[in-house]
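It is worth pausing here to work through a concrete case rather than discussing structure prediction in the abstract. The textbook approach is simple: state the sequence, then state the predicted structure, then interpret. We follow exactly that order.
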Amino acid sequence: MRDTEVLVVGAGLAGLTCALRLEAAGVDVTVIEAGDAPGGRVRTDRVDGFLLDRGFQVLNPIYPRVRHYADVDELGLRSFTAGLALRSSRTPDLQILADPRREPQLIPQTLRSGKLHPASLAALTRWAGSALVSDWAIENLTGDDDTRAESMDRSGLIGPLRKVIDRYLAGVLLEDEGSTSTAFTRLMVRKLYRGVPGLPTGGMQALPDQLASKLVRPVELNTRAVEISPGRVRTEDEQEITADLVVVATDPIAAADLVGAPVPQGKGVTTHWFSADEAPTDLKMIVLDVRDEHGPVVDTCVISNVAPDYAPEGKHLIQASSLLPTNGSPVADDEVRKHVSEIYGVDASGWQLLRRDDIPYAVPAQPAPFVANRGMEIEPGLIVAGDWVDHASIQGAMVSGERAAEGWLHRLDGGQREMQDPVDTGL
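Step two, the predicted structure:
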Protein backbone atom coordinates (compact mmCIF):
# COMPACT_ATOMS: atom_id res chain seq x y z
CA MET A 1 0.00 0.00 0.00
CA ARG A 2 1.21 3.50 -0.77
CA ASP A 3 -0.17 6.96 -0.13
CA THR A 4 -0.57 10.14 -2.14
CA GLU A 5 -2.49 13.34 -1.48
CA VAL A 6 -4.50 13.23 -4.72
CA LEU A 7 -4.79 10.24 -7.03
CA VAL A 8 -5.92 10.92 -10.59
CA VAL A 9 -7.26 7.90 -12.50
CA GLY A 10 -6.85 8.53 -16.21
CA ALA A 11 -4.23 10.53 -18.12
CA GLY A 12 -6.52 12.14 -20.66
CA LEU A 13 -6.65 15.89 -21.03
CA ALA A 14 -8.87 16.32 -17.96
CA GLY A 15 -6.64 14.21 -15.72
CA LEU A 16 -3.41 15.80 -16.93
CA THR A 17 -4.78 19.33 -16.48
CA CYS A 18 -5.98 18.48 -12.98
CA ALA A 19 -2.56 17.10 -12.04
CA LEU A 20 -0.67 20.07 -13.50
CA ARG A 21 -2.82 22.57 -11.63
CA LEU A 22 -2.41 20.69 -8.33
CA GLU A 23 1.34 20.27 -8.75
CA ALA A 24 1.67 23.99 -9.42
CA ALA A 25 0.08 24.55 -6.00
CA GLY A 26 2.47 22.12 -4.29
CA VAL A 27 0.08 19.20 -3.95
CA ASP A 28 1.44 15.63 -4.09
CA VAL A 29 -0.28 14.01 -7.10
CA THR A 30 -0.14 10.54 -8.61
CA VAL A 31 -1.63 9.88 -12.07
CA ILE A 32 -2.34 6.31 -13.21
CA GLU A 33 -3.33 5.37 -16.73
CA ALA A 34 -4.60 2.04 -18.05
CA GLY A 35 -3.13 2.59 -21.51
CA ASP A 36 0.43 2.57 -22.77
CA ALA A 37 0.52 6.36 -23.33
CA PRO A 38 -1.30 9.42 -22.06
CA GLY A 39 -4.15 11.01 -23.99
CA GLY A 40 -7.35 9.08 -23.38
CA ARG A 41 -9.43 9.68 -26.51
CA VAL A 42 -6.68 11.94 -27.92
CA ARG A 43 -4.22 9.38 -29.25
CA THR A 44 -2.14 8.84 -32.38
CA ASP A 45 -0.84 5.54 -33.78
CA ARG A 46 1.82 4.87 -36.40
CA VAL A 47 0.52 2.47 -39.05
CA ASP A 48 2.67 1.56 -42.05
CA GLY A 49 4.53 4.86 -41.77
CA PHE A 50 1.32 6.93 -41.45
CA LEU A 51 0.19 8.85 -38.38
CA LEU A 52 -3.43 7.98 -37.62
CA ASP A 53 -5.27 9.84 -34.91
CA ARG A 54 -8.02 7.83 -33.24
CA GLY A 55 -10.79 9.40 -35.22
CA PHE A 56 -10.49 12.68 -37.10
CA GLN A 57 -9.47 15.35 -34.57
CA VAL A 58 -8.14 18.88 -34.84
CA LEU A 59 -6.72 21.36 -32.35
CA ASN A 60 -7.90 24.95 -32.22
CA PRO A 61 -5.17 27.10 -30.62
CA ILE A 62 -7.73 29.70 -29.54
CA TYR A 63 -8.72 27.54 -26.56
CA PRO A 64 -7.70 29.41 -23.38
CA ARG A 65 -6.81 26.27 -21.44
CA VAL A 66 -4.63 24.96 -24.28
CA ARG A 67 -2.78 28.29 -24.35
CA HIS A 68 -2.42 28.28 -20.57
CA TYR A 69 -1.13 24.74 -20.06
CA ALA A 70 0.56 23.92 -23.37
CA ASP A 71 3.28 25.52 -25.47
CA VAL A 72 1.39 25.85 -28.75
CA ASP A 73 4.52 26.94 -30.65
CA GLU A 74 6.29 23.80 -29.52
CA LEU A 75 3.43 21.69 -30.90
CA GLY A 76 4.31 22.86 -34.41
CA LEU A 77 0.69 23.35 -35.42
CA ARG A 78 -0.03 23.23 -39.18
CA SER A 79 -3.27 25.07 -39.96
CA PHE A 80 -6.07 24.23 -42.35
CA THR A 81 -7.04 26.83 -44.90
CA ALA A 82 -9.83 28.90 -43.32
CA GLY A 83 -12.64 27.72 -45.51
CA LEU A 84 -14.54 24.76 -46.93
CA ALA A 85 -14.52 22.94 -50.26
CA LEU A 86 -17.93 21.85 -51.49
CA ARG A 87 -19.15 19.10 -53.77
CA SER A 88 -22.36 20.50 -55.24
CA SER A 89 -24.54 19.81 -58.24
CA ARG A 90 -23.79 23.20 -59.83
CA THR A 91 -20.32 22.44 -61.21
CA PRO A 92 -18.00 19.45 -61.74
CA ASP A 93 -15.27 21.23 -59.76
CA LEU A 94 -15.14 21.64 -56.01
CA GLN A 95 -16.49 25.03 -54.94
CA ILE A 96 -14.69 27.17 -52.40
CA LEU A 97 -16.28 29.01 -49.49
CA ALA A 98 -13.50 30.76 -47.55
CA ASP A 99 -13.17 33.27 -44.72
CA PRO A 100 -12.41 36.58 -46.48
CA ARG A 101 -10.62 37.93 -43.39
CA ARG A 102 -8.00 35.19 -43.45
CA GLU A 103 -8.06 34.07 -47.09
CA PRO A 104 -8.57 37.25 -49.17
CA GLN A 105 -7.01 35.57 -52.21
CA LEU A 106 -10.03 33.21 -52.28
CA ILE A 107 -12.68 35.95 -52.32
CA PRO A 108 -13.38 35.59 -56.08
CA GLN A 109 -13.91 31.83 -55.76
CA THR A 110 -16.06 32.34 -52.68
CA LEU A 111 -18.28 34.81 -54.50
CA ARG A 112 -18.65 32.39 -57.42
CA SER A 113 -19.86 29.64 -55.08
CA GLY A 114 -23.43 30.94 -55.21
CA LYS A 115 -23.89 30.33 -51.49
CA LEU A 116 -23.71 33.95 -50.28
CA HIS A 117 -27.13 35.34 -51.09
CA PRO A 118 -27.68 38.60 -49.15
CA ALA A 119 -30.83 37.25 -47.46
CA SER A 120 -28.95 34.17 -46.27
CA LEU A 121 -26.07 36.27 -44.93
CA ALA A 122 -28.53 38.49 -43.08
CA ALA A 123 -30.19 35.44 -41.56
CA LEU A 124 -26.82 34.01 -40.54
CA THR A 125 -25.97 37.31 -38.87
CA ARG A 126 -29.28 37.23 -36.97
CA TRP A 127 -28.58 33.68 -35.82
CA ALA A 128 -24.88 33.86 -34.92
CA GLY A 129 -24.03 37.54 -34.67
CA SER A 130 -24.21 37.85 -30.87
CA ALA A 131 -21.75 34.98 -30.46
CA LEU A 132 -19.14 36.60 -32.69
CA VAL A 133 -18.71 39.95 -30.95
CA SER A 134 -15.68 40.36 -28.73
CA ASP A 135 -17.57 41.02 -25.50
CA TRP A 136 -19.78 37.92 -25.72
CA ALA A 137 -20.16 36.66 -22.16
CA ILE A 138 -20.81 33.38 -20.42
CA GLU A 139 -24.33 34.60 -19.66
CA ASN A 140 -25.15 33.88 -23.31
CA LEU A 141 -24.99 30.18 -22.47
CA THR A 142 -27.74 30.37 -19.86
CA GLY A 143 -31.43 31.15 -19.91
CA ASP A 144 -33.75 30.23 -22.77
CA ASP A 145 -32.35 27.68 -25.17
CA ASP A 146 -33.68 25.51 -27.95
CA THR A 147 -32.24 23.27 -30.66
CA ARG A 148 -30.03 24.66 -33.39
CA ALA A 149 -32.58 23.58 -36.03
CA GLU A 150 -35.35 25.53 -34.30
CA SER A 151 -33.25 28.66 -33.86
CA MET A 152 -31.97 28.59 -37.45
CA ASP A 153 -35.51 28.19 -38.77
CA ARG A 154 -36.67 31.08 -36.60
CA SER A 155 -33.84 33.27 -37.97
CA GLY A 156 -34.89 32.52 -41.54
CA LEU A 157 -31.62 30.73 -42.29
CA ILE A 158 -32.59 28.57 -45.26
CA GLY A 159 -31.38 27.76 -48.74
CA PRO A 160 -27.91 26.78 -50.00
CA LEU A 161 -25.98 28.46 -47.16
CA ARG A 162 -28.06 26.64 -44.54
CA LYS A 163 -27.26 23.36 -46.29
CA VAL A 164 -23.53 24.09 -46.05
CA ILE A 165 -23.77 25.04 -42.39
CA ASP A 166 -25.86 21.98 -41.52
CA ARG A 167 -23.44 19.67 -43.29
CA TYR A 168 -20.40 21.24 -41.66
CA LEU A 169 -21.91 21.19 -38.18
CA ALA A 170 -22.84 17.53 -38.65
CA GLY A 171 -19.11 16.79 -38.63
CA VAL A 172 -18.43 19.10 -35.67
CA LEU A 173 -21.37 18.10 -33.46
CA LEU A 174 -21.73 14.52 -34.79
CA GLU A 175 -25.43 14.87 -35.47
CA ASP A 176 -27.32 15.81 -38.64
CA GLU A 177 -30.84 16.32 -37.29
CA GLY A 178 -30.25 19.71 -35.64
CA SER A 179 -30.82 18.45 -32.09
CA THR A 180 -27.85 20.19 -30.41
CA SER A 181 -28.39 23.14 -28.08
CA THR A 182 -28.34 26.51 -29.86
CA ALA A 183 -26.20 27.98 -27.07
CA PHE A 184 -23.59 25.24 -27.43
CA THR A 185 -23.65 25.45 -31.22
CA ARG A 186 -23.01 29.19 -31.06
CA LEU A 187 -20.14 28.49 -28.69
CA MET A 188 -18.57 26.22 -31.32
CA VAL A 189 -19.23 28.75 -34.09
CA ARG A 190 -17.50 31.42 -32.01
CA LYS A 191 -14.51 29.11 -31.58
CA LEU A 192 -14.27 28.53 -35.34
CA TYR A 193 -14.70 32.23 -36.10
CA ARG A 194 -11.90 33.27 -33.76
CA GLY A 195 -9.36 30.52 -34.42
CA VAL A 196 -8.13 28.32 -37.25
CA PRO A 197 -7.81 24.62 -36.33
CA GLY A 198 -4.70 22.67 -37.19
CA LEU A 199 -2.76 19.47 -36.62
CA PRO A 200 0.29 19.23 -34.35
CA THR A 201 3.56 17.89 -35.68
CA GLY A 202 3.57 14.23 -34.72
CA GLY A 203 -0.21 13.97 -34.49
CA MET A 204 -2.78 14.88 -31.86
CA GLN A 205 -0.84 12.70 -29.39
CA ALA A 206 1.65 15.57 -29.18
CA LEU A 207 -0.72 17.57 -26.96
CA PRO A 208 -1.17 15.04 -24.12
CA ASP A 209 2.49 13.99 -24.45
CA GLN A 210 3.56 17.58 -23.87
CA LEU A 211 1.23 18.03 -20.90
CA ALA A 212 2.44 14.77 -19.36
CA SER A 213 6.07 15.80 -19.80
CA LYS A 214 5.46 18.84 -17.59
CA LEU A 215 4.47 16.74 -14.56
CA VAL A 216 6.94 16.42 -11.71
CA ARG A 217 5.88 12.82 -11.12
CA PRO A 218 5.53 10.90 -14.40
CA VAL A 219 2.27 9.21 -15.31
CA GLU A 220 2.19 5.56 -14.26
CA LEU A 221 1.23 3.83 -17.51
CA ASN A 222 -0.27 0.35 -17.95
CA THR A 223 -1.84 0.69 -14.50
CA ARG A 224 -5.54 -0.10 -14.63
CA ALA A 225 -7.86 0.73 -11.73
CA VAL A 226 -10.35 -2.06 -11.07
CA GLU A 227 -11.89 -0.97 -7.78
CA ILE A 228 -12.39 2.58 -6.53
CA SER A 229 -13.87 3.96 -3.35
CA PRO A 230 -13.39 7.31 -1.61
CA GLY A 231 -9.73 7.55 -0.67
CA ARG A 232 -8.70 4.16 -2.05
CA VAL A 233 -7.95 2.55 -5.42
CA ARG A 234 -7.04 -1.05 -6.18
CA THR A 235 -5.27 -1.73 -9.48
CA GLU A 236 -5.29 -4.74 -11.74
CA ASP A 237 -1.86 -5.82 -10.44
CA GLU A 238 -3.20 -5.75 -6.84
CA GLN A 239 -1.61 -2.46 -5.80
CA GLU A 240 -3.56 -0.46 -3.26
CA ILE A 241 -3.20 3.32 -3.33
CA THR A 242 -4.73 5.57 -0.71
CA ALA A 243 -5.36 9.27 -1.19
CA ASP A 244 -7.21 12.15 0.39
CA LEU A 245 -8.96 12.70 -2.94
CA VAL A 246 -9.53 10.38 -5.90
CA VAL A 247 -10.30 12.03 -9.25
CA VAL A 248 -11.74 9.64 -11.85
CA ALA A 249 -10.82 11.37 -15.13
CA THR A 250 -11.80 8.61 -17.55
CA ASP A 251 -14.38 8.44 -20.30
CA PRO A 252 -17.96 8.29 -18.96
CA ILE A 253 -18.46 4.61 -19.70
CA ALA A 254 -15.38 3.63 -17.69
CA ALA A 255 -16.42 6.05 -14.93
CA ALA A 256 -19.82 4.39 -14.77
CA ASP A 257 -18.20 0.96 -14.39
CA LEU A 258 -15.76 2.15 -11.74
CA VAL A 259 -17.84 4.47 -9.57
CA GLY A 260 -21.40 4.37 -10.86
CA ALA A 261 -21.33 7.80 -12.46
CA PRO A 262 -24.29 8.49 -14.77
CA VAL A 263 -23.47 8.24 -18.46
CA PRO A 264 -24.79 11.18 -20.50
CA GLN A 265 -25.93 10.47 -24.04
CA GLY A 266 -23.01 10.39 -26.46
CA LYS A 267 -22.43 10.80 -30.18
CA GLY A 268 -20.42 8.35 -32.27
CA VAL A 269 -18.30 8.62 -35.39
CA THR A 270 -16.55 6.32 -37.84
CA THR A 271 -13.36 7.52 -39.52
CA HIS A 272 -11.87 5.74 -42.51
CA TRP A 273 -8.18 6.33 -43.19
CA PHE A 274 -7.06 5.83 -46.80
CA SER A 275 -3.64 5.85 -48.43
CA ALA A 276 -3.31 7.04 -52.01
CA ASP A 277 -0.40 7.48 -54.39
CA GLU A 278 -1.88 10.72 -55.70
CA ALA A 279 -3.80 13.31 -53.69
CA PRO A 280 -7.36 13.82 -54.99
CA THR A 281 -6.96 17.59 -54.41
CA ASP A 282 -4.21 19.92 -53.28
CA LEU A 283 -6.59 21.86 -51.01
CA LYS A 284 -5.88 22.14 -47.30
CA MET A 285 -9.58 22.23 -46.52
CA ILE A 286 -12.34 20.06 -45.16
CA VAL A 287 -14.52 18.90 -48.06
CA LEU A 288 -18.30 18.57 -47.74
CA ASP A 289 -20.96 17.04 -49.98
CA VAL A 290 -23.86 19.53 -50.11
CA ARG A 291 -25.89 17.84 -52.82
CA ASP A 292 -29.48 16.88 -52.01
CA GLU A 293 -28.65 13.22 -52.49
CA HIS A 294 -25.38 12.15 -50.93
CA GLY A 295 -23.66 9.26 -49.20
CA PRO A 296 -22.70 8.73 -45.57
CA VAL A 297 -19.50 10.81 -45.36
CA VAL A 298 -20.08 14.05 -43.41
CA ASP A 299 -16.58 15.41 -44.03
CA THR A 300 -13.32 14.42 -45.61
CA CYS A 301 -9.92 15.99 -46.21
CA VAL A 302 -6.44 15.19 -47.44
CA ILE A 303 -4.63 15.19 -44.10
CA SER A 304 -1.17 15.06 -45.67
CA ASN A 305 -1.82 18.33 -47.53
CA VAL A 306 -2.15 20.02 -44.14
CA ALA A 307 0.44 17.99 -42.23
CA PRO A 308 2.91 16.22 -44.55
CA ASP A 309 4.46 14.20 -41.69
CA TYR A 310 1.19 12.25 -41.35
CA ALA A 311 2.17 10.27 -44.49
CA PRO A 312 5.44 8.72 -45.68
CA GLU A 313 7.17 10.25 -48.67
CA GLY A 314 5.34 9.61 -51.92
CA LYS A 315 2.04 8.77 -50.22
CA HIS A 316 -1.04 10.76 -49.24
CA LEU A 317 -3.42 10.30 -46.31
CA ILE A 318 -7.15 10.93 -46.69
CA GLN A 319 -9.70 10.78 -43.88
CA ALA A 320 -13.44 10.31 -44.34
CA SER A 321 -15.76 10.55 -41.34
CA SER A 322 -19.34 9.30 -41.05
CA LEU A 323 -21.84 9.41 -38.22
CA LEU A 324 -21.99 6.23 -36.15
CA PRO A 325 -25.61 5.64 -35.12
CA THR A 326 -26.36 4.47 -31.58
CA ASN A 327 -28.97 2.17 -33.09
CA GLY A 328 -28.51 0.64 -36.50
CA SER A 329 -25.68 -0.69 -38.59
CA PRO A 330 -22.34 1.11 -38.98
CA VAL A 331 -21.53 2.38 -42.44
CA ALA A 332 -20.01 -0.17 -44.83
CA ASP A 333 -16.48 0.33 -46.17
CA ASP A 334 -17.60 0.14 -49.81
CA GLU A 335 -20.25 2.84 -49.24
CA VAL A 336 -17.59 5.20 -47.89
CA ARG A 337 -15.18 4.43 -50.72
CA LYS A 338 -17.93 5.06 -53.29
CA HIS A 339 -18.90 8.33 -51.63
CA VAL A 340 -15.35 9.74 -51.40
CA SER A 341 -14.93 8.90 -55.09
CA GLU A 342 -17.98 11.06 -55.83
CA ILE A 343 -16.89 13.88 -53.52
CA TYR A 344 -13.43 14.24 -55.02
CA GLY A 345 -14.42 13.27 -58.56
CA VAL A 346 -11.72 10.57 -58.74
CA ASP A 347 -11.59 6.78 -58.75
CA ALA A 348 -10.85 5.75 -55.15
CA SER A 349 -11.12 2.02 -55.79
CA GLY A 350 -7.33 1.67 -55.64
CA TRP A 351 -6.91 3.51 -52.36
CA GLN A 352 -5.65 1.37 -49.51
CA LEU A 353 -7.82 1.30 -46.41
CA LEU A 354 -5.29 1.66 -43.60
CA ARG A 355 -7.80 1.49 -40.75
CA ARG A 356 -11.35 2.32 -39.76
CA ASP A 357 -12.01 3.79 -36.34
CA ASP A 358 -15.48 3.11 -34.93
CA ILE A 359 -15.83 5.35 -31.88
CA PRO A 360 -19.27 4.84 -30.27
CA TYR A 361 -18.72 7.58 -27.69
CA ALA A 362 -16.67 10.27 -29.39
CA VAL A 363 -18.27 13.28 -27.67
CA PRO A 364 -21.08 13.80 -25.17
CA ALA A 365 -24.33 15.07 -26.65
CA GLN A 366 -25.19 18.69 -25.87
CA PRO A 367 -28.99 18.92 -25.95
CA ALA A 368 -31.02 22.00 -25.09
CA PRO A 369 -30.99 23.54 -22.59
CA PHE A 370 -27.18 23.65 -22.49
CA VAL A 371 -25.71 22.86 -19.08
CA ALA A 372 -22.05 23.52 -18.28
CA ASN A 373 -20.43 22.69 -14.95
CA ARG A 374 -22.30 19.54 -14.07
CA GLY A 375 -21.79 18.09 -10.61
CA MET A 376 -18.50 16.25 -10.16
CA GLU A 377 -18.77 14.70 -6.68
CA ILE A 378 -19.77 11.05 -6.38
CA GLU A 379 -19.04 10.91 -2.65
CA PRO A 380 -16.84 13.02 -0.36
CA GLY A 381 -13.26 12.30 -1.45
CA LEU A 382 -14.33 10.90 -4.83
CA ILE A 383 -15.06 13.05 -7.89
CA VAL A 384 -15.17 12.71 -11.68
CA ALA A 385 -13.76 14.91 -14.44
CA GLY A 386 -13.98 14.99 -18.21
CA ASP A 387 -15.62 16.86 -21.06
CA TRP A 388 -18.84 15.01 -20.24
CA VAL A 389 -19.20 16.98 -16.98
CA ASP A 390 -18.47 20.29 -18.70
CA HIS A 391 -18.82 20.73 -22.45
CA ALA A 392 -17.85 18.67 -25.47
CA SER A 393 -14.45 19.94 -26.57
CA ILE A 394 -10.76 19.85 -25.71
CA GLN A 395 -11.38 23.08 -23.81
CA GLY A 396 -14.24 21.43 -21.90
CA ALA A 397 -12.07 18.47 -20.87
CA MET A 398 -9.29 20.75 -19.61
CA VAL A 399 -11.72 23.08 -17.82
CA SER A 400 -13.21 20.09 -15.98
CA GLY A 401 -9.75 18.98 -14.84
CA GLU A 402 -8.98 22.47 -13.62
CA ARG A 403 -12.33 22.64 -11.81
CA ALA A 404 -11.48 19.40 -10.01
CA ALA A 405 -8.13 20.81 -8.90
CA GLU A 406 -9.55 24.19 -7.90
CA GLY A 407 -12.22 22.53 -5.79
CA TRP A 408 -9.57 20.63 -3.84
CA LEU A 409 -7.40 23.71 -3.35
CA HIS A 410 -10.46 25.64 -2.20
CA ARG A 411 -11.09 22.95 0.40
CA LEU A 412 -7.47 22.97 1.58
CA ASP A 413 -7.72 26.70 2.16
CA GLY A 414 -10.76 26.20 4.34
CA GLY A 415 -13.04 27.81 1.78
CA GLN A 416 -11.13 31.08 1.91
CA ARG A 417 -9.55 30.77 -1.52
CA GLU A 418 -11.57 31.91 -4.53
CA MET A 419 -11.85 29.28 -7.24
CA GLN A 420 -9.95 30.25 -10.41
CA ASP A 421 -12.07 30.53 -13.56
CA PRO A 422 -14.84 28.21 -12.35
CA VAL A 423 -16.44 28.04 -15.81
CA ASP A 424 -14.10 29.80 -18.25
CA THR A 425 -15.45 28.58 -21.55
CA GLY A 426 -13.38 31.53 -22.71
CA LEU A 427 -14.28 31.37 -26.36
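Step three, interpretation. Residues 2-43+205-264+369-412 form a domain with the FAD/NAD(P)-binding domain fold (CATH 3.50.50.60). The longest strand covers residues 352-364.
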